[in-house]
Amino acid sequence: MRMKASATIEAAVACSVFFLSFFLVIRGVFYYHDKNILMGTAYEAAVVHSQKKRSPEACTIAEAEQSFEIAARKRMLLFSAVNLTIEETDQRLLYKGLHGKGE
To answer: How far apart (Å, rounded) are the C-alpha atoms in residues 10 and 61?
Structure first.
């Protein structure tokens, strides 16, 4: 009788290892998804900001940061807090996107 119960215990241990590794893989996929979304949204904000700079109606840095945060929050899966800092010089726009867990 004891030999039959050992298969159940082995299956429980094997299933828990399988599910743990499965959830770690899913969490890693969500992390890299959010990282790519953050980079893509920052690129999109940089392109829109640079195009609006050339037009007669000037785009402020605050408007670009706000549009970035709205677009990024809609698409993020794992991280809830996003932050964009824009440094502007004569010929260059530098965008830095940061993400985090808390509000």
So the answer is: 59
What is the per-residue pLDDT across 71-81, written as a single tens digit (0 to 9) for each? 777 887 777 77
Is the pTM higher than 0.85? The answer reads no
Residue 38, token pair as written in the block: 């953050």
Does residue 66 form part of some domain? yes
Q: Total domain count for the chain?
A: 1
Query: Tell me, what DSSP letter sits at residue 58?
Result: P
Residue 55: domain span: 30-100
Give the contacts of 46 (CB within 8 A, at least 6 positions apart). Answer: 93, 95
Is 58 a domain residue? yes
